[in-house]
Amino acid sequence: MQNWLQKLEYKIKQYMIWCYALSVFVQVIMMTEYVKLHPQYAAILNGLNRILFIAMMAGALVSALDSRRNLSILVLTVALLIMEKVVAGNI
């Protein structure tokens, strides 16, 4: 049983890393001049970025359910992601 749970936690961590990397890539693309000239693409990318943010929060919540240490990491992760979204929104 424990082996199955460890594999699931490992897969969730991989999933969150990919979501975060894709989110950073989308934010970089959103700052290009091409996207600024075509606001319809900016709306699509912004929606994708919000979906990735929700997916990362869901993954963090699932991985934080088993220990107090993971819960403190979840709080730190949420704070960093919200701060990143606020800064990216102001640029």
- Computed structural class: mainly alpha
Unreliable stretches (pLDDT < 50, length at least 5) are none
Average predicted confidence as pLDDT: 80
Radius of gyration: 15 Å
Instruction: State the distance separating the first and last CA atoms.
Output: 47 Å
- Helix segment tally: 4
Number of strands: 0
Order of helices and strands: HHHH
Strand content: under 5%
Q: How much helix, percentage-wise, in residues? A: over 70%
Largest sheet: none
> What is the molecular shape?
elongated
Keywords:
single chain, 91 residues, mainly alpha, 4 helices, 90% helix
Tell me about this structure.
This protein has 91 residues and is an all-alpha fold. Helix content is 90%, strand content 0%. The chain is built from four helices and no strands. Helix 1 (2-30) packs antiparallel against helix 3 and helix 3 packs antiparallel against helix 4 (68-90). The radius of gyration is 15 Å and the shape is elongated. The termini are far apart. The model has no long low-confidence stretch (mean pLDDT 80).
Describe the protein's topology.
Layout (H helix, E strand, L loop, with lengths): L1 H29 L2 H5 L1 H25 L4 H23 L1
